[in-house]
Amino acid sequence: MSAEVGALLEPLGVCIHALDLAHVRLASTVAVLGAGTIGLLATKLASLSGASRVFTTDVLPARLAVAQAFGAHEVVDASQHDPVAVIRERTGGRGVDVVIECAGAPGTPRQAVELVRPGGTVVLVGIPSDDRTEFPASQARRKGVTIKLSRRMKHVYARAIALVEAGLVDLPRLVCHRYPLERTPDAFTALDRGDGVVKAVILA
Question: Is the pLDDT confidence value at 195 over 70?
Fold first, then answer.
């Protein structure tokens, strides 16, 4: 296993833990909000878990293209369309069984509660920059939504390694930018600007 793949086992582990919390069942419908590294891996794991339909949303078309390669059945450009309206329409107004929120954006927890079906599950993985999570409490209560907060990866390294060894998750596919150690500031600048970056790796 290369050092590059080894470095990506941690985000894969974060997603394994999130999927454990989500309890995705065979033929479930799943929405993943955010298609950064965590969202893309959550998309892949939801597909591997037997979800019949996986919707992935983001505001960057380049990331949505990768989401399709990682198992998303449908993608929604949230910069152009309301993901709640689109996904609810495509599920016949029912919503999805599970929402995995990976964006950490101010509005995505609200979207998650609006998207999930009555009695469904929302797993909040994204980290909000202002340390606040807001969603409509009355709607969550009326729908009987189960809301879980996911933190880090727990003890799943062995499972992450097994997925890679079996060829079920293509971690190098996520890496689109590679920088030598002396160009570390350039890596962070590219990430901050967007620049179509999915995952940047710094090689010592």
Answer: no
